[in-house]
Design brief:
It is built from three helices and ten strands. By secondary structure, it is an alpha+beta fold.
């Protein structure tokens, strides 16, 4: 009986992982491309090893550069205005009102007293830091629900950086 319970538990965990992977893959295929401008970060943490620390201008505009920890809202969504190039700017915090044309809602989470959209770092292959040194925008895929995935970095001309630029 014990082996059956262990086997069923293992199968449930694997099924959960498979559903999560499937959802992320669907977001990569169907999600709307939204570009968020990068905000300055501490130059010492810009590139640490094989990743780049990220902060986004929209987060600064929504929550302040050094937000008051006591007044930070709970996890939620922000509303962004998206131009014809896909570049998004902060418009307002989402209060459940319908979105206007050219707007998208993007989920944020407060972690370590800092807002994050999907992640606060971009990982790249060892030895390829110079490929991302000119990054000015983070490329996200955003679902209608506001869930998002960081899929790449772009330069000031919106050109995809790194070895991923072959997909564009």
């Amino acid at each position: 009986m014990r082996r059956i319970i262990i086997a069923l538990t293992g199968l449930l965990i694997l099924a959960g992982v498979a559903v999560s992977i499937s959802n992320k893959e669907m977001l990569l295929v169907t999600g709307r491309v939204v570009l968020l401008e990068l905000a300055p970060v501490d130059p010492r943490s810009l590139m640490q090893g094989d990743y780049m620390a990220l902060r986004f201008k929209a987060a600064n505009e929504a929550f302040g550069i050094r937000p008051d920890q006591a007044s930070l809202p709970t996890d939620g969504r922000i509303v962004l205005s998206v131009n014809e190039d896909g570049v998004a700017t902060f418009k307002r915090l989402d209060i459940g009102a319908p979105l206007a044309a050219g707007e998208v809602a993007m989920r944020y989470r407060i972690r370590d007293h800092k807002p994050k959209f999907a992640t606060n770092a971009f990982f790249f292959q060892e030895g390829h830091a110079q490929d991302y040194a000119k990054a000015r925008y983070g490329e996200f895929r955003v679902a209608d629900s506001g869930e998002c995935i960081l899929t790449g970095l772009r330069d000031e001309n919106l050109v995809l950086l790194g070895s991923q630029n072959a997909r564009q």
